[in-house]
């Protein structure tokens, strides 16, 4: 566990340093590393973009045809609705792209041929071999319950999340009839339902822990709930700053959902 986390910390530090060095050299403060359409690391200003804008950019890039580099004008609905940024992307490995939001200079060719090579070469081995490129996308010190098909961990206080629909890594799914896209849809639907129906005050309290929302949460809010369907089961719980949604196979008995979910939260809470 210690070795795995040390490796992950070193890998993240390498990627963050490369991203932080490339951006000012390219005249930008907005940059990130996308791994399988998810943000692995980003500059501080990228995290300060409105959540919807960051999601829109990642989704937009995921819809584009794969290529080695791009230079596309984009408008951000709130940050820059009238003057376009240049969205520059550079393919490092299949599924791994560096993204920048720049002004009119420097040229795409200059950044691609000189800056990307210079700043990302030291991190290239880590990109190829590191845990950030695993299908699961994170490192754990204990195995997950075998019936887990997916999980979503949200920390509203820092506006970040971790999501996986291959929580056991790239091995074949365990007799599940749910495709990866169906898992994503189920998790997304369940999260939207519980966050808007049951956990509203809980999430407000996590964003503003010193506010009255914390007292409302203690006295009136639901902290755990579950749902069962023909194809899967879901369990959600809030604790501290975290909201966890877990997607289980139907083989997991209903009475086990709570204990399994609490054990999972204990294992993944350190990620955010």
From TrEMBL:
Cellular component aspect of the GO annotation: cytoskeleton
Protein origin, superkingdom: Eukaryota
UniProt GO BP: non-motile cilium assembly; vesicle-mediated transport
Domain FUZ/MON1/HPS1 third Longin residue range list: 147-268
Residues annotated as domain FUZ/MON1/HPS1 second Longin: 28-121
Keyword Ribonucleoprotein listed: no
Keywords for the protein's UniProt record, in alphabetical order: Cytoplasm, Cytoskeleton
Localization terms from the record: Cytoplasm, Cytoskeleton
Family: Belongs to the fuzzy family.
The name this protein goes by in its record: Uncharacterized protein
Lineage of the organism: Eukaryota, Metazoa, Chordata, Craniata, Vertebrata
